[in-house]
Task: structure prediction
Amino acid sequence: MDIKLPNLGDGIDSAVVLSILVKPGDTIQKDDTVLELETDKAVAPIPSPVTGTVTLIHVNVGDTVKTGTLVLTTDGNAGSIDTTQTVTSPSSPQTSSPQNIPSQPNTDSDLRTIPTGQYRFESVSGAEPPASPTIRKMAGLFGLDLRRIHGSGHGGRITTSDVQAHISHLQYLAFTPPSSASSAVAPFPLKPITPLPDFSKFGEIERKQLSSLRKKIGQKMSDSWTSVPHVTQFDEADVTELMSLRKQYLPSFESRGVKLTVTVLLLKAIVDALKKFPIFNATYDEAAGEIVYKNYFNFGIAVDTDNGLIVPVIRDVDHKTLDELSADLSKIAEKARNRQVSLEDLQGSSFTISNLGSLGVGAFTPIVNTPEVAILGLSKSITKPVVLNGEIKIRTILPLSLSYDHRVIDGADGARFTREIINGIENFDESYLKGN
Ligand code: CAO
Result:
């Protein structure tokens, strides 16, 4: 029976096939993951709507698929895949289809010494290297041969950073005198893979496949870390008064069944600061040479789950009451932990918060959740003696760490924005607690 993709979710026109976890002849149960699709923010495992045996696979890794695309044929009952149901990692990747896996260049030596010109993608099927339509368009525009670009993504997929590295290398070769260019050593690692030693020589080892989500997180972090010049600024907010306010209002919130955590309260102080510093709620469109300011305030919230970090989104933080924000935060955190986040839940954030305080963290440097330009880290608030107006007082202090894209945000802006957040926390607007 033919299995097609129905609606991929609001605002999602297409997705790319990241991996195919079954092959013809495989017996599958209803809800077994058969495909993994990738959108710009998430990897979605796609469950089978039927039990049966796979007879045909109609898509390849790297294909762009849309609503209605025929993906599989089985001998089970006809069905339509529900892509809006869940988005997290499957427990572990299974038999991944070998299509489009590029042969790797010589990895015996450090790739830093391999000039770009020597790399060539080869595929048994003769297929193009896997790359998104945007990358293909970019390659067409600049006359780049994608087969000459080493893809660092899953299955050799070519990422924006790969194209950037390739262009930088070509520029280096073009503007370096022939004598030094002839040594053709890349100015930075094109793919910093150093062959690993044989650890089993030193003791027992165990190897485990990374889950798709873990790979996706790794790729996302690596892309952000290598493409965004990060600066992290540390500061502290005195949350003593805020904690007293919380204590004072807690009974009324609890009587309504509302969980009033620090994070919920901070959302309000942060959104107020963001309104005054719109650059922190923006995206840098490097290709257009523009900054995209957003007049909506959707917060990505880093949630720790058994499967890894997931960043679902709370929408319209500026328009919501503390009751609504608390309900939203509990809902998305629970959905993330129960593997029930939809693709839509992961899209559209304009600023991200990562609170590691409840896990006892003292300080950390969060990585910007691109294409955003800033992220706020919250560490554990501690009650300790501090000097206030020449006197030692016992205060509760919350450490903050703001990381931002230094291409578009200067240190002074970072300092002013952090001060504004601290001001909002230390002089918390009590009307929010009264439901206004
Ligand atoms: N300092 C001290 N206590 C804190 C705190 C902080 N910064 N943040 C939260 N707490 C407290 C809460 O107030 C709550 O206390 P009570 O039990 O007295 O009410 C307790 O810790 C547990 O909070 P919580 O985690 O249940 O709820 P939350 O709303 O504060 O946070 C969420 C929700 C989703 C942010 C959190 O559960 C979570 O997943 N944090 C981890 C984020 C993460 O993984 N970041 C990784 C980033 S980089 O890899």
User: Anything to note?
Assistant: Residues 261-264, 301-304, 309, 329, 333, 354-358, 366, 378, 380-381, 398 surround oxidized coenzyme A (CB under 6 Å).
